[in-house]
């Protein structure tokens, strides 16, 4: 969780989006809707060498302009910068340094974040060096000539960038498992929390969370500590007549982000709703481990088909049931509630799991010999050179291939299934990064 952030800053039209897209390859954007910021910032996962990070396009930073959006845009850039490990300041090499560039540079020099200067639109190597040299005057150190469109020069830029980016695995390890209990109002989140805590109140110390939205409760079982992130604690205020749903879903989103394992609570009497699907989508986007908890099982009239019908409903309406365990419980009677924690431990272990490069390549070799990569119409066949796990939480495996676009969704799913079948990863999403090697 919490990949280092690289902010992409610059005037409009210098090529920021083009650069972001190049850095992110074919990964899809994660759009975080943050209240108070009108233009959504787009976060794109990326990596270079053994470093993973997220690039954020900040929108155009304009200083000498009095458009009405100016303060917002500037605020956005500042917010992006405040959470960034490094920034790339993009300028237009064909236009040369402009007064606005100088103004932005002056501002950037005052920020406590390392800034790299990328001089874009330098397609011709010789010309590029000359164009780039003009930007020494900005006082931001060496200008890197690049072409975001063609990709030239970006390697050198990234080599320098990753020197400023921390290793994600350097995050201190704790034995505590953070568990978010999420779900729609009235599905039984508070009741579940109480069932966990139960008579053990004595050893429970409520600790206020980092936000006022959730109160964490720490419980211990057999030497394992669980930090339960409760999102139920705060009730909708009846007097607020705007967007209560908006607020509660945002609270859930925040809890998901802080968690290692999410307990996605579903009301057995209602089945999976649209809101549940929304929450499920976010769990996958954030790469959290998950357990589907169907609560109020005591209140369901059961026959021998009931479980089967539920499983079918879950499978068709939640996309992650391929890997997430489902458990049927009653917070009211306590039935199977303790068993949830066993699943939590299992899911947290999968989430943190690291698999050696040798094992990954064994699985790949096997998978490819059962089922060769597709051949495109042009006749060139997809080829996987090797794979390696680049991070955990969730387990993320980079696959170096001749050309990523030769691998269609079907084949990608096949490879993911092979990893799961051979290596397990129960309870956690896994990510595969398909990287073209040129
Ligand atoms: P942004 O407003 O800073 O995000 O800029 P865009 O990425 O939208 O690019 C602005 C314009 O510059 C577009 O017309 C791009 O095609 C062009 N552009 C971006 N990168 C390059 C480049 O490396 N070389 C050239 N020649 N043009 C580029
Ligand atoms: P929250 O809004 O998700 O925190 O839900 P609550 O824990 O406040 O529960 C909402 C309602 O569902 C309460 O009336 C609970 O008594 C009831 N409830 C919670 N869990 C169960 C359960 O396992 N079985 C039954 N029958 N009712 C439950």
UniProtKB/TrEMBL annotation:
Domain of life: Bacteria
Signal peptide range: none
PANTHER family: GTPASE DER
HAMAP family on file: GTPase_Der
Assembly and oligomerization: Associates with the 50S ribosomal subunit.
Known role: GTPase that plays an essential role in the late steps of ribosome biogenesis.
The name this protein goes by in its record: GTPase Der
